[in-house]
């Protein structure tokens, strides 16, 4: 590894940690950086996942007070996150990524638009007849299945899972963007952790690059968590939308 490559990998991981703390999508920085440094696509994908796990956990630690205040019912999404994450990792090793890669821009765009419509949808739910019927079981089943699909994608590649999860958490009734970010980081890090374990066991990780990027992701992730809470909910919501649209455009051009 050259000095220039090392600087690129560290810097991309630090920025990815910051982006993941706010809205997700840091893989869009680390994955191309690893490709540029000479890794194959599969090795780059696996190494990126492993490298960003510590940063995701450090970012989640920055939201620990918000997680403590979050209603316990939302943590039911942990189980589908773990199961889906390992399935996605296995699919990465066994399945050509072309078809799913073509779907990514549209999935991210859909999730970003859904997040933009979060507040109007919540108002409609509060005033509609649905709120007068016992729909808790259906909501749990529906959101669990949705999270399972998101986790499969997260284990497979992962760019955009933060926005996908923020969208469903908003529809489920959370209005505090910092609690939503805390849960998003918790579930996202769980998905990446089980996928990373599989990638490590499968021997798909470039450890020299991974360790350097871990340090950058930890610094970026933890610092951005505190910064996001100081900037306020309105700013962070706008940042989520801007990042989501930017990710969509970059992925479309990448195609």
The gist of it:
The protein has twelve helices and no strands. It is mainly alpha-helical. Helix 6 runs parallel beside helix 9 (161-171).
Description:
- By secondary structure, the chain is an all-alpha fold.
- The protein has helices at 3-22, 27-36, 41-62, 64-68, 78-94, 98-116, 118-127, 136-156, 161-171, 177-201, 207-231, 233-254.
- α1 crosses α3, α3 packs parallel to α11 (207-231) and α8 (136-156) packs across α10 (177-201).
- The longest helix has 25 residues, at 177-201.
- The chain starts with a helix and ends with a helix.
- Residues 129-135 have low confidence and may be disordered.
Sheet-strand content, in percent, reads under 5%
What is the N-to-C order of secondary-structure elements (H for helix, E for strand)? HHHHHHHHHHHH
Please count the helical segments.
12
End-to-end Cα distance: 28 Å
Quick tags:
mainly alpha
Q: What does the secondary structure layout of this molecule look like, with pairings?
A:
Blueprint (H helix, E strand, L loop, with lengths): L2 H20 L4 H10 L4 H22 L1 H5 L9 H17 L3 H19 L1 H10 L8 H21 L4 H11 L5 H25 L5 H25 L1 H22 L1
């Amino acid at each position: 590894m050259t000095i220039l490559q090392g600087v690129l990998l560290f810097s991309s991981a630090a920025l990815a940690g910051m982006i993941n703390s706010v809205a997700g999508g840091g893989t869009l920085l680390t994955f191309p950086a690893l490709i540029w440094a000479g890794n194959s696509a599969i090795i780059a994908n696996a190494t990126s996942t492993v490298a960003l796990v510590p940063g995701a956990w450090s970012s989640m630690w920055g939201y620990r007070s918000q997680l403590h205040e979050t209603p316990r019912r939302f943590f039911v999404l942990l189980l589908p996150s773990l199961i889906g994450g390992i399935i996605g990792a296995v699919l990465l090793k066994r399945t050509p990524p072309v078809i799913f890669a073509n779907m990514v821009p549209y999935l991210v765009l859909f999730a970003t638009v859904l997040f933009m419509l979060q507040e109007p949808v919540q108002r409609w739910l509060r005033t509609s007849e649905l709120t007068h019927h016992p729909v808790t079981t259906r909501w749990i089943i529906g959101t669990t299945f949705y999270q399972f699909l998101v986790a499969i994608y997260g284990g497979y590649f992962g760019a955009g899972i933060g926005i996908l999860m923020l969208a469903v958490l908003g529809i489920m009734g959370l209005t505090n963007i910092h609690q939503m970010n805390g849960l998003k980081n918790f579930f996202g890090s769980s998905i990446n952790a089980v996928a990373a374990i599989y990638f490590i066991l499968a021997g798909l990780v470039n450890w020299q690059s991974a360790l350097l990027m871990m340090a950058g992701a930890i610094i970026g992730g933890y610092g951005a968590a505190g910064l996001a809470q100081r900037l306020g909910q309105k700013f962070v919501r706008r940042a989520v939308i801007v990042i989501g649209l930017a990710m969509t455009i970059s992925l479309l051009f990448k195609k």
